[in-house]
Amino acid sequence: MKKNIPPPKHRIFELLSKENASGVAYKNKALKRSILNHLDQHGDFTITELSREMNTSVPKITSLVNELIEDRLIRDNGKFDSTGGRKASIYGLVADACYFIGVDVKKYYINLGLVDFRKHLVNLKEKIPYRLENTKESFQQL
Q: Which one in 2, 10, 115, 135 has a CA-CA gap of 20 to 30 Å to 73?
């Protein structure tokens, strides 16, 4: 009989918070944040490239990348053609790992935008009627 096992939850909020960590755990969280930031700013990379950029050993980056894969924040995007030897894997952010909502409040309307983890615009709603006033009702409507 097959059990219904929910998929593992990624721990992005735990990873991004600077609480509840000290020593090696704090350093690992900081390196994971640096890896995510680097992938966000510069796109997909190999472990060797990440190791060079982070000035950290290949085994350490490999371990952290594997944990980020388990957390479903990054993924192996396939092999990279190299000039010789083994082909290296390219790693990048998982677009649907998390989403960000942008709210642009104007005097007579609001704009809402939904962006995925790779900064792709998923949905945009513009000029939703709204009247900005300094009242509890206006705030509650928002």
A: 2
- Sorted by sequence, the CB contacts under 8 Å of residue 55 that are 6+ apart come out as none
Q: Which amino acid is at 95?
A: A
Q: Which parts of the chain have pLDDT scores under 70?
A: 1-21, 81-84
d(CA 86, CA 22): 37
Residues 21 and 88 in one domain: yes
Sequence letter at residue 6: P
Alpha helices (H) in 43-99, listed in sequence order? 47-54, 58-70
Query: For residue 51, how far is the Cα from the chain centroid?
Result: 19
Full-model pTM: 0.73
Together in a domain, 84 and 63: yes
